[in-house]
Amino acid sequence: MLKRKNILKIAIDSPAAAGAGTLAKAISKHYGLFYLDTGKIYRFVAYLKIKYPKKFNNKFIKSKIMSLKIKDLSNKNLLSDEIGTEASIISKIKSLRKMVHSLQVNFAYNPPKKYKGSCLDGRDITYKIVPDADLKFYITANVKTRALRRYKELKGLKKKITYKEVLKSIKIRDKSDFNRKISPLMKTKDSLLINTTNLNKRSCFLKIKKIIDRKINN
Ligand code: C5P
Predict the structure, then answer these.
(1) In the chain, how many domains are there?
(2) What residue ranges in 64-186 does DSSP mark as E strands?
(3) Is there a contact between 139 and 20 (Cβ–Cβ < 8 Å)?
(4) Among 50, 86, 88, which is best to mutate for testing ligand 1, by the most ligand atoms less than 8 A from CB?
(5) Which residue in 119, 187, 207, 212 could disulfide with 28, CB within 3.0 to 4.6 Å?
């Protein structure tokens, strides 16, 4: 695999709806990094499962992953709660994780030339996908705050869902993501913990920016 030298690599892991995506996007923009929301790839596969239930086998998934374009990941259909739940189910499949693995590693170590590096967020980024990242973060918030943020986001997308339903599905997803055998979500020792419960987007960004600047200027 081709690895670009002297690039900045940032790895982020977080439970569902902790604000990692928003932060990662802001950081990537600020530092000129290529951003990859790895959860979207699992959501994309979940979407395939729901859309093409009869064709859904390894060969089919592989061909779809091979031809995946970054812009396919911004499909609004991927944001629903139903897709999120299905994503956490299919993400337990070992063969599927393997297929997705190389795609992620490639983006992390060999981002498009116009970027100065990469920033990936997900569940296993800090210890499996980019174990040698220059900076690692574990971003979290209490479950009710996360559910409320996701609820507002889904309402903004005009989805029919109640806060209670969102809270329930986030709890189920947490249980599955933390406890699964393959690549469970965890905070590695070398990841910096950022709890966003009482922080707004701007203060989260500034907090992380301070840490990154210190690292870069060292
Ligand atoms: O981050 P997001 O909520 O979009 O992720 C959807 C699901 O995809 C997660 O609940 C998790 O089960 C799975 N996932 C994963 N590994 C990643 C990213 C997401 O297993 N690196």
Answers:
(1) 1
(2) 117-122, 135-140
(3) yes
(4) 88
(5) 119
DSSP string, 136-169: EEEEE--HHHHHHHHHHHHHHTT----HHHHHHH
- pLDDT for residue 123: 98
- Euclidean distance between CA atoms 15 and 211, whole angstroms: 21
DSSP, collapsed to helix, strand or coil, labels residue 185 as coil
**Tokens 């600047």 -> residue:** 213
Model pLDDT for residues 163-187, shown as the tens digit of each residue = 999 999 999 999 999 999 999 999 9
Report which protein residue has its CA nearest ligand 1's atom 15.
123
Residue 120's CATH number: 3.40.50.300
Domain of 87? 8-207
* pTM for this predicted structure: 0.96
